[in-house]
Amino acid sequence: MKIRLQDGLPYVSATLVFRGEQLLLDDVLVDTGSAGTILSADKTLGIGVRYEPNDFVHRIRGVGGAEFVFGKQIDVLTVGELEVQDLQVEIGAMEYGPDLDGIIGIDFLVQTNAIIDLAQMQLYKAIR
Question: What homologous superfamily is domain 4-125 in, according to CATH?
Fold first, then answer.
């Protein structure tokens, strides 16, 4: 997957599947400093990702500030050749400044054995 720089930050596109519905997210930040993957509530609402009474709500903090998010298990998250099934993600407003569709965190990167190749501006799976 080609990494593109926007305002000096690494972005990729990702595909989300939730309860059989698919959504392309174009502006997803790759963030090794984020423990978890977070997706925009506004972007994912169109395929039925919404808060339900059994969802876990908590507060997260980062460089962009703090916000309340809810946890949701999604069917599949794919970035190029990298894919995780049944991934627990956080859903939030993501009002951090830049218009983001989501943030790929270290949880996704570790589960997929991802290599971030900045010389080639590529994100791909390690060969094991």
Answer: Acid Proteases (2.40.70.10)
